[in-house]
Amino acid sequence: MFKNGWRKPSVVMTGYLDRIGAGAVLANPEVLDFDWTPPELVGREPIQRELAAKFSTLNHPEGAGRAVITGPVGSGKTVLADTFCRDIQRHLAGKRNVRHVKVNCRNASTSMRVVQRILHLLDPGHPDRGLSMGELL
Q1: What are the sequence ranges of the domains in the chain?
Q2: Chain centre distance of CA 89
Q3: What is the mean pLDDT of the chain?
Q4: In whole angstroms, what is the distance from residue 86 CA to residue 81 CA?
Q5: What is the reported pTM?
């Protein structure tokens, strides 16, 4: 013991730290990550087919598509969109360079801010200020 009353920790005292990680319940903890998406969605085939039909023109060089996904909070709108975008990028790899960006419209509440976020995600060097909507587009 030192004069101030502090003792050097014993091996037995710190031995409990060896239990950290022992007997872990989760074999794959990344599934709890906020941005994790499953490799495939179960029970969503009808809506996935509908999305594929809306975006079928992406096979053509000038083709484009758009869709609005609606539903209550927690119904899987974001995971559906993320999974579809991932799958379409894989499907068209080597044929067409398809990129997707995600913009949270709660944080970008105006049309101008949404366009700025999209441009910044596609081109990080693009200026955020000083341009009109027409100049941004």
Answers
A1: 25-98, 101-137
A2: 14
A3: 83
A4: 9
A5: 0.66
